[in-house]
Amino acid sequence: MEQLAPEQKPHMLFVGHWHVQAYIPAYRNVETFSIGCFQAQTPYLARMGLFPNIGGVILEVITDETGIKSVKTEWVPFYIVKKNDF
Phi and psi of 68, rounded to 5°? Predict the structure, then answer.
């Protein structure tokens, strides 16, 4: 978001590939999500000492003619994973 000009910024940004879940509300007027994953810990993540956030996010977004009015999030975790599902 730091490098985007104001006229090029989206209302919402969803990023993946990091295997972690995060929500950064209204940073530079953009709702930003790192969306987690549905994959068990890979050998690479284990070597790096990282464990993925396995699950998904449910969003309720209310808009009007000016843009986003509100965002509600619900993280749905999956605690039981299939080993070596990659």
Answer: -80, 125
